[in-house]
Amino acid sequence: MNLTFTRQELRDLFVAWLALGLAFTLLLEPRLTDALLGTAGGVSVGVVTLTLVVSLLTVGVAFLLHELAHKVVAIRFGQVAAFKADYRMLGFAIVGALVGFLFAAPGAVVHRGRITPKENGLIALAGPVTNIGLAVVFLVPYLSFAASGVGGFLWDLASRGLQINLLLAGFNMIPFGPLDGRKVREWNTGVFVAVAVPSILLGIGALFVL
User: Fold this and answer.
1) Could you give the angle at which helices 45-55 and 152-172 cross, rounded to 10 degrees?
2) How far apart are CA 181 and CA 189, in angstroms?
3) For the CA atoms of 52, 57, 61, 62, what is the dihedral angle to 10 degrees?
């Protein structure tokens, strides 16, 4: 398997990663938004920096690995695949975060070549499954920190990483529009139900519990 990246693709991935980190920082730190809009006083640079780092290491990494999983599986099936950022939607995500609303559709892996419905379904499935795997990785320190009462940066990293990966997996398994769930359902209803039902339920739980 020849996994390569063009300069444009690397630029798109970096910009999308940075823009998502910034958007979630604005959403999680309303004091920063108020300061930027001139409706309140300043905010600690240290607090903003830590929030940005947490966002980049959780939201950003969850997104990057989700898209790279699509690309790896697509290439495995002989496709020509590359990530393309949607700069308009990235701008919308940042503007939306400024007013307390975030809808992130940063771009997608575009692939072409001869492909079967099963291969297309597996390519789509790779992203949400990767997020589920990442959620398990974050779950271990999350449970450990919760039991020992660890707080601060490490707690934020573990809890945010668990939450965002469950949300991404659940959201992307919705079987509508360009989302992964639609492609999986078109390939195999049984696989779709087996992955989508727990993913969506866990995503809802992450939204209201974590």
Assistant:
1) 40
2) 10
3) -90
The owner of tokens 């490490």 is 154
> Which residues are annotated as catalytic?
67
Strand duo 80-85 + 107-112: pairing: antiparallel
Q: What is the pLDDT along the chain (210 residues), one digit of tens a residue?
A: 778 899 999 999 999 999 999 998 888 776 666 655 555 556 667 778 888 999 999 999 999 999 999 999 999 999 999 999 999 999 988 888 887 777 778 899 998 888 999 999 999 999 999 999 999 999 999 999 999 988 888 999 999 999 999 999 999 999 988 899 999 999 999 999 999 999 999 999 998 877
Tokens describing residue 43: 């905010």
CA distances from 46 to 18, 35, 50, 153, 199 (A): 18, 15, 6, 11, 35
pTM over 0.70: yes
Give the largest CA-CA distance in the chain: 57
What Cα–Cα distance (Å) separates residue 19 from each residue in 23, 91, 103? 6, 8, 12
User: Any idea what DSSP says for residue 96?
Assistant: H
| E strand spans, 86-194 | 107-112
